Amino acid sequence: MGSWTDWRPESWVVGLAANTVIAVAYLLIVLAIVVPLARSRQLRANRLAAATAAIFLTCAVHHGSHALHMALPSLGVDDPSGLAMRQAWDWTLSGWDVVGAVVAVHYWSLRRGFGSLMRGAQLFEDLRAREQQALELNDTVLQRMVVAQMALELGETERARAAVDSSVAAAGRIITDLLGSSPHRLDLVRSAAAGDPGGGSTGSGTVTGSGTVGGDEGQRP
């Protein structure tokens, strides 16, 4: 029976494999960012997304070049740089490469779990998208609350109740669209209690991902 040193891979082999995984994962991240932006014609306008894609691209080229140089001597190519890298690539470097590969793979597992929050341009929401969301909130929620307030002032309780119910339902739909289809329940809790017009507190209400309103202010007589 051979000892551990008889079949243990050399450190540069582990480094080559880990750098290959990192390079492929980073290139896929670049495509996941660039392709949706190009389809929506936001590649030039969304500078944050373009810069992020550029960072991942340069890192992919960097790690890919490491793997390529170390692999060339095994392919019959006389590459002094590759031979030197094999000698210099100790277990410390290989260990960090393995950590990087694990993180890169874990990133892709997270993308599958968070739905539309991690898809393309939505990951790098630009000013135009924020303005559109503000307009949608104004049209579907704020205006209906104004109707409810006017109805209460006129003593039309049923009309006010219907307007409030409609506003809550619309807010729930907007939140669901913003969060995307997630397999787990998300709870959105305010960082501070909401205050009434007189400066008091109405309770610690909680809005869940399904649009349910709880707490003191969520209960109506």
Please outline the helices and strands:
Layout: H1 4-7, H2 11-39, H3 47-71, H4 80-88, H5 91-113, H6 127-153, H7 157-179, E1 187-189, E2 206-208, E3 213-214
Antiparallel strand pairs: 1-2, 2-3
Helix pairs in contact: 2-3, 2-5, 3-4, 6-7
Spatial order of the strands in the main sheet?
1-2-3
**How would you sum up the global shape?**
elongated
Strand content: under 5%
Largest sheet: 3 strands, antiparallel
* Portion in helices: 55-70%
Helix tally equals 7
Q: Give the distance, in angstroms, between the N- and C-terminal Cα atoms.
A: 80 Å
Q: Can you write the helix and strand succession as a string?
A: HHHHHHHEEE
What structural class do you assign from the helix and strand content? mainly alpha
Oligomer: single chain
Could you tell me the radius of gyration in angstroms? 27 Å
- Mean pLDDT comes to 74
Q: Runs with pLDDT <50, length 5+?
A: 1-5, 181-186, 196-221
Can you count the beta strands?
A: 3
